[in-house]
């Protein structure tokens, strides 16, 4: 996690987007990373706010990036970079050796359209070769840029700010917020929510993610959910693109699960979920208090799975290395230009892109839905 002094934080020059519309007193904080939607809430008791505030440790992206960023566009929309870190330190050591660093195991750009009734999510394959810009790391040291760098090395090389700068350089879109989720917090949150219901259309057995699911309906606990969103070799063509398709299907199932959880009449359950959620995430410094997080959540509380359109950034396998992918420049430009203009992503943008061939393996239980903004 990144250290940050709340007393000395530097805000950006004004807010980019219109404030979210007022919603119910509790809401869902959309945190799509390693396929997770984080539920946050609070009550009127001061000690509860103090407890939850103590869980939140933010990172000041604005101060670290300065003015070398895309223009603030005030069109009522909002863009959020959500990362899942593959750090193997601490409790996350169960998922591999701690090699002293972390990479962004999952990366998604969440674009919430004006009015906050629809959203598009663009997954960035971790193996995408990109031109990583020059960055400043978390200790203030300069990190050289690199051509043909794997996207997930941006976080490893320079932390959250470098990941944000890399996305902004690729897309030309300024990120309004940053949210990071870790493995252990992800598992605990799923368990607090009571699991996530999915349907598999074929057996998924993966020795590396320790997952073994027969075809049919399942309620996945936290360990199984983490295994699902990390499964790669046993689905589709075995690439990271197939894993992304599993993640996207899981997200839609999770959104529905969160919407169905009854917490309004159960303050203890609400507090337990909020406590777990606030421990699981590292937000940017504009979301690192309960009041800020709740305001953000209210603006997203009306989104259901049917309101979220999910794609993978258009890529093709690298001719020089089939274990890597490279962006399809024209199609990727279509995606980013559409989101920058707050427009739906055109179907033509993904027409010729590599897919990973894992579509349809995981579905919401009893539901097969997808929705693009009209």
What would you say this structure looks like, in words?
The chain has 374 residues and is of the alpha+beta class. The protein has one domain (23-360): Aminopeptidase. Helix content is 29%, strand content 22%. It has nine helices and 19 strands. The chain has helices spanning 46-55, 61-65, 153-171, 183-193, 222-230, 240-260, 267-280, 290-298, 329-340; strands at residues 27-29, 38-40, 78-85, 104-112, 119-123, 129-132, 135-136, 142-143, 146-150, 177-181, 196-200, 204-206, 211-213, 216-220, 281-283, 308-312, 315-318, 321-327, 362-364. A six-stranded mixed sheet has the order 15-10-3-4-5-16, sandwiched between helices. Strands 14-11-19 form a three-stranded antiparallel sheet. Helix 5 (222-230) packs antiparallel against helix 6. It starts with 26 loop residues before the first strand and ends in a 10-residue tail after the last strand. The model is unreliable at 1-45, 88-101 and 367-374 (pLDDT under 50).
């Amino acid at each position: 996690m990144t250290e940050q002094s709340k007393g000395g934080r530097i805000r950006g020059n004004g807010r980019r987007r219109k404030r979210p519309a007022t919603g119910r007193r509790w809401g869902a904080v959309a945190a799509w990373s390693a396929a997770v939607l984080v539920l946050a809430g609070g009550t009127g008791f001061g000690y509860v706010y103090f407890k939850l505030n103590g869980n939140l440790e933010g990172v000041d992206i604005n101060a670290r990036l300065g003015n070398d960023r895309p223009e603030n566009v005030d069109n009522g929309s909002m863009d959020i970079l959500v990362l899942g870190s593959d750090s193997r330190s601490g409790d996350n050591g169960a998922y591999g050796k701690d090699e002293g660093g972390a990479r962004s195991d999952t990366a998604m750009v969440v674009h919430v359209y004006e009015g906050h009734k629809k959203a598009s999510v663009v997954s960035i394959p971790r193996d995408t070769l990109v031109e990583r810009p020059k960055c400043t790391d978390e200790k203030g040291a300069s990190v050289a840029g690199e051509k043909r760098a794997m996207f997930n090395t941006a976080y490893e090389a320079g932390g959250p700010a470098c990941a944000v700068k890399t996305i902004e350089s690729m897309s030309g879109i300024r990120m309004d917020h940053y949210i990071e989720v870790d493995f252990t917090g992800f598992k605990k949150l799923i368990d607090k929510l009571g699991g996530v219901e999915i349907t598999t259309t074929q057996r998924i057995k993966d020795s590396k993610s320790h997952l073994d699911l027969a075809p049919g309906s399942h309620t996945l606990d936290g360990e199984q959910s983490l295994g699902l969103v990390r499964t790669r070799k046993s689905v589709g063509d075995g690439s990271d693109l197939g894993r992304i398709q599993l993640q996207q299907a899981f997200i839609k199932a999770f959104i529905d699960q969160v919407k169905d959880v009854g917490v309004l009449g159960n303050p203890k359950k609400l507090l337990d979920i909020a406590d777990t959620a606030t421990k699981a995430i590292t937000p940017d410094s504009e979301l690192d208090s309960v009041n800020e997080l709740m305001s953000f959540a209210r603006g997203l509380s009306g989104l259901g799975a049917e309101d979220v359109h999910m794609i993978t950034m258009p890529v093709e396998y690298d001719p020089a290395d089939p274990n890597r992918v490279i962006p399809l420049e024209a199609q990727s430009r279509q995606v980013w230009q559409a989101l920058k203009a707050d427009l739906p992503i055109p179907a033509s943008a993904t027409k010729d892109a590599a897919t990973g061939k894992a579509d349809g393996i995981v579905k919401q239980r009893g539901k097969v839905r997808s929705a693009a903004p009209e």
